[in-house]
Amino acid sequence: MRIGVITGSGSYRWPHLHDAAEQAVTTGHGTVTVTEGRLPGGEIVQLSRHGEGHHRLSGQVDHKANLAALLDRKVEAVVSLTVCGSVDAAVRPGSLVVFDDLYFPANRLPDGSLCTWYDTPGEAGRGHWIFERPFSEPLRQALVTAAGHTGVPVVPGGVYGHVDGPRFNSRPEIAALAAAGVTAVSQTAGPEAVLAGEAELPLALVGFVTDHANGVAPVPEPVEALLERMAASRKVLADLVGHALPLLDAQPVTPAGVVHRFGS
Predict the structure, then answer these.
(1) Dihedral angle sign, alpha carbons of residues 244, 245, 251, 257
(2) Which of 89, 151, 171, 183 would disulfide-bridge 215, Cβ 3.0–4.6 Å?
(3) b or e along 33-61 (b: 16 or more beta carbons within 10 Å of the residue's beta carbon)?
(4) Is the pTM of the predicted complex or chain greater than 0.90?
(5) pLDDT of 212 higher than 70
(6) What span, in angstroms and rounded, lies between the C-alpha atoms of 71 and 139?
């Protein structure tokens, strides 16, 4: 299977790819660099949303160009990876969360425009989308199974909260997210889920928890601990994808459930 992998903070290059080749993909939304290669069980098209050295902060990520590049390279599904802060005190740093729902009420891209492919009045395919679930369930289940082989605690479901960066959230803001049922937060994956959903491209999202979000733990951890876990996330997430690839040929990987689209 041909899988797109979007990597986040701390994972700018994908380890152990066979025949890895980097190339620039020019799309109608910009040019994106991807790395293609093979792992046992499938082909990988890896894309670093921040770029080498964290060149782009969260408010500068070009989500449309990124997803368009993966579509151009004919990926059959996308695994989106993020490091995140736990809003639920029971979800410990060092855990993996395979999210099953999304909290992204602003539905906007970093430049402030609405998060949709269809931004022209009367454009074919436009419409109001109602998602039963924002993530591909077969892909999600393969990742849950694979996560069990990584040696770290696994949370098999949870609500991903998208928050705007680059600043981290205040204590009252995190408390409001907790009241909405959010499990963990980061600043990049909301638009990816929405754009993949509109494109009917199967996508699943996995978070590696680096710390508790602001105000969740009684005593904040040192920034050094967060950075150590971010560095450790690279191997854990690479192992996760490696274990998931052989599982993905066992069943069809379908897109997220769209209950209804109207207005097109």
Answers:
(1) positive
(2) 171
(3) ebbbbebebbbbbbbbbbeeeeeeebeeb
(4) yes
(5) yes
(6) 17
